[in-house]
């Protein structure tokens, strides 16, 4: 019995010592993390020169690994450059206008400029890394000494700081993505976005060159600050066709403000509206569509399930409007096929079958007819995503809406389907939820020769009562991919959908 008590006492003591060691290790690690964070925040920032721009650089612990370029007051650019829990922040402090102008105008610098900018940027990042490491370790040591009041604990905190910084640095190097510079996420003033984000076509054609992207970014910033008194104009690119994709406006006049601003700032060639322009398709709502004639660019429209045939006729009367309903029209150099939604849900006297399989079959049937009766098209516009996927293999790009949530999918056939959010912030439905529905639209860049999508910018505005603006660029990795039709036997598109009458 005495031996048993003795063994139990040893186990209790061992358990107690283990718990104390674990608690001390956890406390020491937490204190070390706080010390590293304080050290990096207080002593880490450096000032560097990249071409004509003086930039402040700082590194800070963050749950998301990213690089942020702060171009105050016009906005900021965010690049998903790495996965380590550290954020690199670059702040534009000053710019030498004379040097910027000389660099941009001197053709002799065109060959040397990429290497020069890359060298200066690397020097700045290296100085930031060394300073952040030194200040972070000093912070871990000093803060551990203050908290635990013991040299041994302070050295343990320093060791924990070394391990943490080494892990962060290794992860950042292993996950570094220089190509992320071609897909920035912009937040700030809508008018400044084209100048900071840059020319999509030029970015795509130089996708493989990190140096080229660096030069482009510095050029954009230099030109922007050189003309700070008046916002710079986005230069038209003759090798791209710009299409503005909107959908589900639902009678919200805010949408027309966005369409006008984007059309002017991004030099839009045509607008494609994938339906639900109105709410009930009634006569009084026809006045809302008169803004189409004031845009000054072609406006392609396909009917949504909230748009009546009367709404479609009202749109067709507007200057510049192009209504597509199982028809093809060349607009801004692109051959576009459009199909109106077969349903009209506000009319409760008409039976409506929204069975997904029926809608998918309808899409496949019209896709088969499209490939047989028409020449190849560059773009398809429909309202419902289920119908849209039925056109897989019929065209390189299909635009749709209806779901009030933006998404994109590259189908196995090579067809890309882009589902647009609500450009009207879901209309009055925005008041039905705790959070307002964002206002969304996208600028699509098509190659003028191949008519293929090269890149697109997703524009998101805060919903009702909010002021935020965000633009995120995406690059099509394989714009020249082969589109493979999906051989299926489908019924004729004429007649009803699943036995119901098409309104």
Q: Low-confidence stretches at least 5 residues in length (pLDDT < 50)?
A: 203-211, 224-236, 490-503
What is the chain-wise order of helices and strands? HEEEEEHHHEHHHEHEEHEEEHEHEEEEEE
Report strand %.
Answer: 15-25%
Output mean pLDDT.
78
Helix content: 25-40%
Strand order of the largest sheet: 1-2-5-3-4-6-19-18-17-7-8-9-10
Number of helices: 11
User: Which class do the helix and strand fractions yield?
Assistant: alpha/beta
- Give the N-terminus to C-terminus distance in angstroms: 91 Å
Radius of gyration: 29 Å
The total strand number stands at: 19
Globular, elongated, flat, extended or rod-shaped: what is the shape?
A: elongated
Describe the structure.
- There is one protein chain.
- This protein has 503 residues and is an alpha/beta fold.
- It contains 11 helices and 19 strands.
- The protein has helices at 2-43, 97-105, 113-148, 151-174, 193-197, 200-205, 210-226, 254-265, 309-316, 356-373, 385-389, and strands at residues 46-50, 53-61, 66-71, 75-79, 86-95, 185-188, 240-246, 270-273, 299-301, 321-323, 327-331, 334-338, 379-381, 397-400, 407-410, 416-419, 439-447, 453-461, 469-475.
- The strands form 2 sheets. It has a 13-stranded mixed β-sheet with strand order 1-2-5-3-4-6-19-18-17-7-8-9-10.
- Helix 1 crosses helix 3, helix 1 (2-43) packs across helix 4 and helix 2 packs across helix 7 (210-226).
């Amino acid at each position: 019995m005495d031996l048993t008590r003795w063994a139990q006492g040893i186990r209790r003591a061992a358990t107690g010592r283990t718990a104390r060691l674990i608690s001390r290790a956890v406390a020491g690690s937490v204190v070390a993390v706080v010390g590293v964070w304080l050290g990096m925040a207080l002593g880490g920032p450096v000032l560097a020169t990249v071409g004509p721009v003086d930039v402040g650089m700082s590194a800070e612990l963050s749950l998301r690994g990213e690089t942020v370029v702060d171009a105050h007051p016009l906005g900021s650019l965010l690049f998903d450059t790495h996965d380590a829990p550290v954020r690199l922040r670059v702040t534009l402090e000053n710019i030498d206008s004379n040097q910027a102008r000389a660099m941009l105008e001197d053709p002799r610098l065109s060959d040397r400029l990429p290497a020069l900018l890359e060298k200066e940027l690397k020097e700045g990042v290296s100085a930031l890394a060394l300073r952040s490491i030194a200040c972070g370790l000093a912070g871990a040591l000093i803060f551990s000494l203050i908290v635990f009041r013991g040299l041994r604990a302070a050295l343990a905190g320093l060791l924990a700081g070394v391990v943490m910084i080494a892990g962060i640095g290794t992860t950042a190097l292993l996950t570094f993505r220089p190509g992320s510079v071609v897909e920035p996420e912009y937040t700030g003033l809508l008018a400044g976005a084209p100048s900071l984000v840059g020319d999509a076509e030029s970015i795509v054609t130089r996708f493989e060159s990190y140096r080229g992207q660096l030069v482009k970014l510095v050029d954009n910033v230099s030109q922007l600050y050189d003309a700070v008194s008046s916002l710079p104009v986005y230069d038209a690119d003759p090798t791209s066709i710009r299409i503005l994709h909107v959908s589900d406006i639902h009678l919200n006049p805010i949408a027309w403000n966005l369409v006008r601003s984007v059309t002017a700032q991004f030099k839009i060639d045509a607008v494609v509206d994938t339906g639900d322009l109105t709410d009930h398709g009634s006569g009084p709502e026809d006045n809302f569509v008169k803004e189409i004639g004031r845009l000054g660019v072609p406006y392609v429209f396909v009917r949504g399930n909230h748009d009546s045939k009367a709404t479609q006729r009202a749109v067709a009367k507007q200057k510049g409007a192009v209504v597509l309903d199982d028809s093809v029209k060349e607009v801004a150099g692109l051959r576009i096929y459009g199909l109106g939604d077969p349903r009209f849900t506000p009319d409760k006297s008409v039976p409506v079958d929204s069975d997904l399989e029926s809608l998918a079959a309808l899409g496949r049937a019209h896709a088969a007819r499209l490939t047989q009766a028409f020449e190849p098209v560059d773009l398809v516009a429909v309202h419902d995503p289920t119908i849209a996927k039925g056109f897989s293999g019929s065209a390189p790009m299909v635009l749709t809406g209806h779901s009030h949530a933006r998404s994109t999918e590259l189908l196995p056939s090579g067809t890309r389907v882009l589902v647009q959010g609500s450009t009207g912030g879901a209309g009055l439905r925005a008041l039905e939820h705790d959070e307002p529905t964002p206002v969304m639209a996208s600028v699509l860049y098509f190659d003028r020769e191949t008519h293929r999508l090269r890149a697109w910018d997703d524009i998101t505005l805060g919903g009702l009562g909010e002021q935020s603006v965000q633009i995120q660029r995406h690059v099509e990795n394989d714009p020249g991919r082969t589109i493979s039709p999906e051989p299926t036997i489908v019924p004729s598109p004429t007649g009803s959908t699943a036995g119901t009458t098409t309104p």
